[in-house]
Amino acid sequence: MGSTPTKVSPLAPKTYPDLAAIEGVRLAAVEAGVKYADRKDLAVILFDRPASVAGVFTRSKCPSAPVDWCRRVLPSGRARAVIVNSGNANAFTGRKGVETVNQAAAAAEDAFGCKKHEVYIASTGVIGEPLDASGFGKHLKNAGKMASQDGWEGMARAIMTTDTYPKMAFRTFEVEGRTYRINGMAKGAGMIQPDMATMLSFLVTDFPVASDVLQAELSRAVRPSFNSVSIDSDTSTSDTVLLFSALDGRKPVRDRKHAGVKRFSKALGEVLHELAMLVVRDGEGATKHIQITVGGARNAASARRIAFSIANSPLLKTAIAGEDANWGRVVMAVGKAGEPADRDRLSISFGGICVARDGERAAEYDEKETSAIMKRDFIEIDVDVGVGKGSARVWTCDLTAEYVAINADYRS
Amino acid sequence: MGSTPTKVSPLAPKTYPDLAAIEGVRLAAVEAGVKYADRKDLAVILFDRPASVAGVFTRSKCPSAPVDWCRRVLPSGRARAVIVNSGNANAFTGRKGVETVNQAAAAAEDAFGCKKHEVYIASTGVIGEPLDASGFGKHLKNAGKMASQDGWEGMARAIMTTDTYPKMAFRTFEVEGRTYRINGMAKGAGMIQPDMATMLSFLVTDFPVASDVLQAELSRAVRPSFNSVSIDSDTSTSDTVLLFSALDGRKPVRDRKHAGVKRFSKALGEVLHELAMLVVRDGEGATKHIQITVGGARNAASARRIAFSIANSPLLKTAIAGEDANWGRVVMAVGKAGEPADRDRLSISFGGICVARDGERAAEYDEKETSAIMKRDFIEIDVDVGVGKGSARVWTCDLTAEYVAINADYRS
Questions:
Q1: What is the pLDDT of residue B196?
Q2: Cβ of A332 and B234 within 8 Å?
Q3: What is the reported pTM?
Q4: Dihedrals φ, ψ of A312, to 5°?
C-alpha cells in the first residue's frame, strides 16, 4: 500500500482495455508530490453537468477522513468532481484529517466552480501520516485545465500504490437502440478483504440513472464481485467504490423496473467482476489466482463463511504457492470455520480432479495428475461439505515470500 | 507440521528444564518409522496404577480420529497409557482412521496389560494420509520395556514436527507439608489458533486429584494460556491437551475448595502459560514474540476479538518482521474486528512508548526511539479502544518469508 512496485505481477493482463470517451466526463492526473517523486499521484474526474452518484464503503470501525466525507455528501446524490490521491490514505489523522478533506473540497469548489457537497474525495496510501493538502488548490486548477475525455488510463495509473498494473474494464449495452457504456477502474493489491474488498474503484456510465436506482444496483453488484475476494483478510480503512451516471443534462431513469436498468445492471456486474479479478491477480506477491467454490452447506451465508475460511488460511495459501495440492489444509480450514460440515461426507477437488471423497483420500487420487494442475496460474478448488444445498464462490491468491518482503519493507 | 526443521528458532530458550521423576509414571520414545528416518516418533506415558485424567480438544468440525477416540474414553476418567506419534495426524482418514486408533488401543492393551478405554491416543503430522499402525504392537512392547521415570525430554523430542526445540515446563507447590509437582510438555509451531491453540500437550501431576476437579481446573486454565495464542490463525484438526493426576493408588481430592487445589491450580496456570509462550516463540519462521494487550473495550470478549484481529493481521505481522512500528496497521486491525471502538479516542503503544493517541499520531512520537524498541525480540503492543473497561491479552509471532518457505515445501 504505497511502495512503488518493482516488477509486474506474473498474473497481469497482456493488454489493457481502451476506455472510450463518455460525453460530459473529463479526467486528469497530475504530479502533486504527495509521496512519490516523478509520478502522477493526484487525479480528478470532472462532470461538466451534475452526475447522479452511488457509493459503497469500508465497514471498518476506523474509516479514513475521506470515507467519512463521502458518506456525508452522498445523500445529496449529485456529483461534479472526484479527487483521488495516492501515497497517503489520510486515515487515523484526527482533526487534521477532517481539515484536509475540507481544504481539498474547498480547493475543488474554487478550481471547478462546483459546490463542496458535489465533490467526492478518496485517498490511498500510508495510514497515520498527516496529509498536506496545501498545494491542492494549485494542482487542481492545473488538473482542471488538462482534463480530457481520454484521461481514463492516466487516472487508473495515478491511483496505484503497490499495484503493479492499472486496472480497467468496460462493457457496452443497448437500450432502445442506443449504445451505452460503463467505464470502470480500480486500485488495490493488499489489505483486501470484504467488506469492501478493494481499496478504491470508480465507475462511470452514460446511461442516465437516478441516484437511488444507482445505489440499489451498486449495493447488489458488489457482493459477488468486490465483496467476494480476499488477498490477505485485512480490511482497509479507505475502501471506496463510487458509481456515477453522467446525466449531462438528461432526465434520469427513476424506475428500477425500466428495461434499460436490467441491461445496465448486467453490464455493471460484469465490469465489477472483471475489476475484482484484476485486483486478486495483482495481490501482493501473488503467483496464483485461486477460485474457491463451496457447496453442500446449510445455506449460502454458511457456505460463504467456509469459503472465506479456506481463502484466508495462510497454510493453504502457502501450500498453493508451493504448487502443493494439500487438501489436508482444506479440511483444516473447513473445520475451523465453525460452520456445519460433515467430515465423513466431505469431498474436495482441485482443478476438477477429486482428491478426497467421503472423508478420506479419493481412491483414484493420482499425485502426478494433481501436481500438473497445481502448475497452472488459475487454481479451482471445489468443496462439498455434505450437509445441505447452500453454495458460495470467492477468490483469493497465494501467499508468497514476496508478500512478506513487500509488507515488511513498506514504510521504509 | 511435519518436515524436519533445519535451524533452531532464534527465540528458543537457552536451556531446557530438567523434568524430575513422578512416582508411578514411566515414559519412553521409540523409532516406529511413521514418517521420519532415524528419529524417535512414537512415545508413551505409562501409569503403573490408574491415573485420573482431564482433556481439552480442538473445536474443529473436522477433528482427527485420535481426538474422537479421546473424547469417547474420557468420561471413564481413568488412564493407564498415553500413545503419541508424530509424522502423521491420522486426520481425514475416514474408516481407516477409526480402525487405526482401535488397532493402536488394542496393541496398548496387549503390551501394557490395561483396558482399551484406559488408553489415550494423539497423533500429529500430515493430514489425509492413512496411518499404518500395523507395527505398533511390536513398538509398544518395546517401549513398555524401555519406559523409565526420566523419559520426559525424550518424549518431548519425539512428538516434535516442525518444532525446532522441545517444549517443557514444570512447577512445584506445597500442600500440607508435602511438595508436589506438575510436569508438562507441548509440541506445536504452526496451525496454531484457538480453540485449542496448540497441537499437543501432556501434563502430569503427582498431586492426587479426581477427574472432575482436574477437568474443571484444566478448562479454566487453558483460556489465558493455550487459548490466547495464535501463530497463523489456522486451527488444527488434532489439538489435544491431556492432564493426568498420577494417583498411584492414593485417594484423590474430590473437593474443588480443598486448599491444595488452589495451589495446584496456580502451578497449573503457570506451567500452561510457560508452554504456550514456548509454542509462540517456536512459531514457524518466527523472529519476534508479540504480546498484544487491548483495554478500553466494551467487555472482555470484545477486547479478546479485537486482540486476535490484531494478532492475526498478516500486514501487522509482516511489518513487525520488518521491525516497523506500523501503528496504521493496528488501526486497520482494530477497525476490521467489527467490535465497538472509538477511532478518535484510540491510543496505541509499542514497548510502552505511545505512538498514537486520540485518533492520531502522538505529538511526542519519535521514529528513532520506536525503531530501537522494534529491534527487541519481545514486542509489547498496548491498545486502548476508548469505549469501556474490557481488556484481554494474547500472544503471537511475526510473519516471515521463512514461514512461507516452511509451509510451501511441507509435503515434498
A1: 36
A2: yes
A3: 0.85
A4: -100, 5
